[in-house]
Amino acid sequence: NKDLTHTIEFLKIISQEQRLKILCLLKNGEHCVCDIWQHLDMPQNLVSHHLKVLKEFGLIQSRKNGVKVLYRIDEHAVTQHTQLLNHFLIPYGN
């Protein structure tokens, strides 16, 4: 089942502690890599790696602002993934 496979991949991605911390930070608005690694006390290269994974999966978006790249949560994508997860976990009729 394609939906189940996609949901499993979603859970793998967000189960990584640093990625979940990044998502929690981004839920409050846009941040550049330098803000994220300083706020979460993580190496810059590790933050960049996790941002790449999150972006490739479609959970975050980015935009250039001068020389900086700002990252934000893709609310539509996150909503779709959580609804799909609900589909598998919540019994019909509830």
From TrEMBL:
Keywords: DNA-binding, Transcription, Transcription regulation. The keyword Chloroplast does not apply. It holds the Pfam family HTH_5. The keyword Hydrolase does not apply. CDD domains: HTH_ARSR. GO terms for molecular function: DNA binding; DNA-binding transcription factor activity. InterPro entries: ArsR-like_HTH (IPR011991), HTH_ArsR_DNA-bd_dom (IPR001845), HTH_MetalResp_TranReg (IPR051081), WH-like_DNA-bd_sf (IPR036388), WH_DNA-bd_sf (IPR036390). It comes from the Bacteria. PROSITE patterns: HTH_ARSR_2. Residues 1-92 form the HTH arsR-type domain. PANTHER family: ARSENICAL RESISTANCE OPERON REPRESSOR (PTHR33154:SF18), TRANSCRIPTIONAL REGULATOR, ARSR FAMILY (PTHR33154). This is HTH arsR-type domain-containing protein. It comes from Candidatus Magasanikbacteria bacterium CG_4_9_14_0_2_um_filter_42_11.
